[in-house]
Amino acid sequence: MNDAEIEFIERFGLLFEEDGAPRIAGRIFGLALIEDRALTLDDMAESLQVSKASISTNTRLLDGMGLLERTTVPGDRHTYYRLAPDAFEVSLARARRRMVTVLELLDDTIPGLPEDNIVARHRLTRMQRWHRFLVEDMDAMLIRWRERQEANCEEGADA
């Protein structure tokens, strides 16, 4: 790996860590983004200079998140991991599910608030409008993204 690739992987790890995820998970995802082949746990441990146990734990996390996918090679007993083909859409879908969960909580809570608790009603109603806006905008973003991807494929651009 060259310096730019190493820095990308390290910075991706920090981005994940800022979001509360393990730094190593971000580093693995960063590696998967720039690697052109599926990798074994040993490959990743060697590239990232971390333990195979840590790689194993975090690849399972990323696989469960839909960001990596497991694959095999005929005649090889190892499990390989590569970037999931729809990893970007999966990321948006996860964020949308989180917004919908908060929205459902707000929808369930607001009607039961006391009429005289004006501050809570105002804050939660504003939060409810915000989350509804986000969910609707995420739906529109996904439609626009898919349309753009189709147009890129029709033009022969790299999807």
Radius of gyration: 20 Å
Which range best describes the helical content: under 10%, 10-25%, 25-40%, 40-55%, 55-70% or over 70%?
Answer: 55-70%
- Under CATH, the homologous superfamily of the largest domain reads Winged helix-like DNA-binding domain superfamily/Winged helix DNA-binding domain
Shape: elongated
Second CATH tier, the architecture of the largest domain: Orthogonal Bundle
Number of strands: 3
Weakly predicted, low-confidence segments: none
Mean pLDDT: 93
Q: Provide the structure class.
A: mainly alpha
What is the total number of structural domains? 2
Q: How many strands, which pairing sense, and closed or not: the largest β-sheet?
A: 3 strands, antiparallel
**Multimerization status:** single chain
The proportion of residues in beta strands is: 5-15%
Query: Any idea of the CATH topology of the largest domain?
Result: Arc Repressor Mutant, subunit A
Q: List the total number of helices.
A: 6
Order of helices and strands: HHEHHEEHH
Distance between the termini: 24 Å
Highest-level CATH class of the largest domain: Mainly Alpha
Question: Could you describe the 3D structure shown?
Answer:
Keywords: DNA-binding, Transcription, Transcription regulation. This protein is mainly alpha-helical and 159 residues long. The protein is built from 6 helices and 3 strands. The protein has helices at residues 3-18, 23-34, 41-48, 52-64, 87-109, 118-154, and strands at 39-40, 68-71, 80-83. It has a 3-stranded antiparallel sheet with strand order 1-3-2. β2 (68-71) and β3 form a beta hairpin. The chain is elongated and about 65 Å long. The model has no long low-confidence stretch (mean pLDDT 93).
